[in-house]
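Problem statement: downstream parser choked on a complex file, so we are re-checking the raw output for the zinc ion run. The parser issue turned out to be on our end (a line-ending mismatch), but while we're here, posting the original submission so the record is complete.
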Amino acid sequence: MEPNYFRDVANAKYSKKHDEHIEYGTAGFRTKSNILNHVLYRMGLLAVLRSKAKKGAIGLMITASHNLEPDNGIKLVDPAGEMLEVSWETIATNLANVPDSELASMLIEISTKENIDLSVPATVIIGRDTRISSPILLNAALVGIKTLHGEVTDLGLVTTPQLHYIVVCTNTKGSYGDPTLQGYYLKLTAVFKSIRGNTINNGNYTSTLMLDAANGVGAIAVKELQRHLEGMLDIKLFNDGCGDLNYMCGADFVKVQQALPLNVPSERNVRCVSIDGDADRVVYFYIDKNDKFCLLDGDRIATLVASYFKELLETSGLVLQLGLVQTAYANGGSTDYISNVLKVPVACVQTGVKHLHKKALEFDIGIYFEANGHGTVIFKDTAKEIIKNYTKNKTHSATKKEAATKLRDVIDLINETVGDALSDMLLVETILHAKGWNIIEWQKSYNDLPNKQLKVRVKDRNVITTTNAERYCLTPVGLQNKIDEIVSKYPRGRSFVRPSGTEDIVRVYAECENSSDVDKLAIEVASLVY
Ligand code: NG1
Ligand code: ZN
């Protein structure tokens, strides 16, 4: 190792100025933006080491997703476009919290333990969301990267999925797509247009929708989509960046509050979409003829996609294993529908897309969505090859080949690296168009159980530990028995509590048969953790 390589890492401007312990959680570091400066600097340093360790470009995204404006955060993206490897999350946490005096020695220790060849060149691809604090934090990260002589590609304002896309394209030398924003838009919109052909409307499907962009970076991307899809998809944009980020709008607000976001007009039976502040989550909703708010969340999207793929597999005669992955937050109504009506295998894993992604890799075609609208579909390379060859095989009937061709084309519409609100939306639009469905028909496929999510502030959220994909509380001892007792009073009742990985709160989830009971059930369970 070059003895002087870490010589300049001490930097007074980015020294650690507080003692708050910060953790690399479900979605990287996320907290108040004013305590993140040294963390960003240090993650700049770490991204260089990670790039050398993996011998590929690393992504660094500055965002706090659906959190309000005062927060910010950072996550690192591995070369294949996935979230940072779990063992490095601990390394990141340790590096973020070490005293300044031990920073250099910890970097040396990481390099030695991970066997990093420091002479390997490093590249870090950076993106950021629209928060006021993001440019300052960007500078901190840039100084970190440059201190260790890493190369930087600064993408400026991008959505989280766009960053993932560009990282994977860069590392696969363009075979996944062109590693530019232009390449991203062209890839998604070209295939969307070709699948849709000349029929803009089909059956009860019409091409008009209203989109709430949470006043986030997604609004910039949506404007690009509007340009590329003019005449094909009529997107009416709201919360386009002029208002407060994620404030009473965006996918998280709509999902948790089950209410219309600010500024979106209450028009009956119109298909509406909400994305979150960094555009990796999407949910649909509409106001019905009785002025009732109706939500179509990640579970709905997953079931729609699963039913479409199942249909294409059956029509084509392709034999591939389709599977769906959910978390404990998935509505019981959706799980019943998937198992009993669609008859597609369904797995439940712990919260956080990295867990869903890993499980989905076990299927030829793995569909995974969190109820909050974060998810995607992934295909095994062998499955892609089988589908491609099938479309070329002259012995299959035209109908079979047509279904296989649709499957082949739809793969290009999907951002397999990570949940992508815009790619997911184009996929939903494609399926609704193919089925000739309006949003009411989509919603009729099954009934959600009434459900409620609550946030509870406690002194130390980590006293709650869970097992069995977070559906069962291990500690505090006795809590689970009390939850069971309460739940047993409610028909089709289910409830669980877990500490959030992104906010300093405990989350309570409850569902049951009667909508008049659900608030009571949630409050009763929440009162156990106060
Ligand atoms: P936490 O705060 O750990 O519940 C939330 C979401 C996750 C995931 C992460 C990352 C819920 C209940 N939880 O995690 O699904 O999206 O944020 O953004 O929606
Ligand atoms: Zn997000």
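For whoever reads this later: The CA atoms of residues 155 and 397 lie 46 Å apart.
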